[in-house]
Amino acid sequence: MNPDASLITALVERWRPETSTFHLPCGEITITLEDVVTLSGLAIDDDAVVVDIPDEEWSAICLRLLGRVSVDLVGGVDVVRIVWLRVEFSHLPENASHEVIEQFARAYALSLIGGVLFPDRSGSTVHLQYLLLIEDWQRAGRFAWGAAVLSYLYREMGRSTLHIMHTGTSLSGDLGGWIALLQFWAWERFPHLAPRDSETACSGSLA
C-alpha cells in the first residue's frame, strides 16, 4: 500500500508527545491498544517484547539462527539489509530439513518485523535483536506484539514531532513505525479521508 504522505504528515504535525494524543480542532484523539488489536489482530496483553543483551557476536547469532551471515556484519554492525533477507531466502530448497525450514521462516518473519511492524526511518534494515525474539516459536507466540508496535509508533511520532518543532521543517517522509496501521486508523476514525474507490481500499488491507 502506498502511504498517504499528506495525511501522515498532517497527523504527525498534530501529535503531542507529552500526552500521546493528536491535537485536533475537535479535541484530542489517539490510536489505542483496542484500535491495534481490531485493525491488525496482534496480541496486546501477553508477555512484554523485551530483548536480553546477548553474549554472542551478532554474526554468530545470524549464523546460528539463519544458517548464513550477511557480509555487512563486520566491525560490530548489528543490522542486516531487508533486501538481503529477501534475496538469500527467496527459494526454499526441495527436501529441505526441518532446521532449514525454520531458518527460512525466521528470515521471512525478520523481514516482516523490519519492513512492516518496526521499520526504522530508512526502511531498509532490521536490527538482529528481533531475531532473538523469534528463536523459539512458542515463546514468540506469547509476546504482546500489538502493544510493542503501538509503543514503537508512539516513539517514532514523538521523535518526528520534536524534529519538526526544533528545525521548523516538514516531516519529509522520514518516519519509522507501522505507517499503514496509522493510515488505516485515520481512515476508520475519519471515513471522509478514506479512498472512495472500494477496490483501492481493499487492496490496502492490513490482512
UniProtKB/TrEMBL annotation:
Biological processes annotated in GO: meristem maintenance
InterPro entries, A to Z: AminoTfrase-like_pln_mobile, MAIN-like
Domain Aminotransferase-like plant mobile: 4-197
Pfam families reported for this sequence: PMD (PF10536)
Protein's name in the database: Aminotransferase-like plant mobile domain-containing protein
Organism of derivation: Linum tenue
